[in-house]
Design brief:
Elements (H helix, E strand, L loop, with lengths): L1 H20 L1 E5 L6 H10 L5 E8 L4 E7 L4 E5 L4 E5 L12 H10 L5 E6 L3 E6 L4 E5 L4 E5 L1
Antiparallel strand pairs: 1-2, 2-3, 3-4, 4-5, 5-6, 6-7, 7-8, 8-9
Length: 146
């Protein structure tokens, strides 16, 4: 009987933790980490923020900002950018590493970078010509999708 109660308590605890893990909260710009606020002020001045939210998953804590023009930014818990999606316009050039920008200009001169995403292993870039490029941390091209 004790084993059954223990198993039941463990399942109940796990379900409560899982329910608590997906906890998104709408916030204002002033509640973002300072690094994220500076990033927005520097690269997206004057754009109206539609909403910002803090996302807390079981093991991850991040922030998302969506502008009125449809552009979307994602930040780590410390405020470093991890995703810049400018759907209808070009990603600000200062955000894109020079090696990636040079590669795109040399190989796709008419294309614009609409989205850039980075993680601990690579950079992914989406172009206006629908190509998706993946670069490693040393900015070597490792994959091309169309």
């Amino acid at each position: 009987m004790k084993k059954i109660l223990f198993v039941f308590a463990a399942i109940l605890s796990l379900s409560v933790l899982t329910a608590k893990a997906d906890n998104d909260k709408i916030i204002n710009k002033g509640m973002l980490p300072a690094m994220a606020q500076n990033f927005i002020d520097t690269h997206f001045p004057g754009l109206k923020i539609s909403y910002a939210k803090e996302e807390r998953d079981f093991l991850e804590h991040s922030y998302e900002v969506v502008f009125a023009d449809g552009s979307k930014l994602e930040f780590t818990r410390k405020g470093a950018w991890k995703d810049v999606d400018c759907r209808y316009s070009e990603v600000p050039a200062a955000i894109v590493p020079a090696a990636i920008s040079n590669y795109v200009k040399a190989n796709y001169p008419d294309a614009k970078i609409l989205k850039i995403e980075r993680d601990s292993n690579d950079y992914e870039v989406k172009l206006s010509n629908r190509f998706e490029l993946t670069f490693d941390k040393k900015f070597n091209i490792i994959d091309i999708d169309n």
